[in-house]
Amino acid sequence: MHPHAVYYAHPMASYGGPTERDDLALLASRFATVVNPNTPTLRAQGRKAAAAGKPMAPFVRAVERSDAVAWRAFPDGTIGAGVWLEIQTALRLGKPVYRLPDMDPHPPHPRFALSIAQTVVANRRWGGGPPLRARKM
Asked: Does the 5-127 domain belong in CATH 3.40.50?
């Protein structure tokens, strides 16, 4: 049995695309609530937090309020800095983490984690996404 609410940690490069749509459908079939950071409310909170020097604060709070985290890597298997922080937050709190698309319950190896600067490059490489700037986390 899966927990009630899952936070969907995924690269910004996949926001609004077919991967995000497929992942959301899968998660909705397995969890009562899916918390997606790609919503107007959370994105606005992220912009406000970034202006205050803490761009990940609202997303970390969302992970803290969720029962589990389902995460997706970039197509090459690397994990963006923000997704990595969300995964590590869940693990620190003893929450289960599931790799998408197969729902593997094993935590990722740190060698796949990218720096903030590498994440910016990967988001541009894999999806274009919104204009990004490396920021201190």
From this structure: yes
Look at strands 68-71 and 5-9 and give their pairing: parallel
Q: State the DSSP string of 10-68.
A: --GGGTTSHHHHHHHHHHHHH-SEEE-S-SHHHHHHHHHHHHTT-TTHHHHHHHHHSSE
First to last CA, the chain: 34
Predicted TM-score (pTM) of the model is 0.88
Q: How far is CA 76 from CA 61, 72, 73, 100, in A?
A: 28, 11, 8, 13
Digit-coded pLDDT (tens) for 85-119: 999 999 999 999 999 999 999 889 999 999 999 99
Q: How far is CA 87 from the centre of its chain?
A: 8
Q: What residue ranges do the domains of the chain occupy?
A: 5-127
Decide if pLDDT at 46 tops 50.
yes
pLDDT in tens, 67-83: 999 999 999 999 999 99
Could you tell me if 123 and 12 are in contact, meaning their C-beta atoms sit under 8 angstroms apart?
A: yes
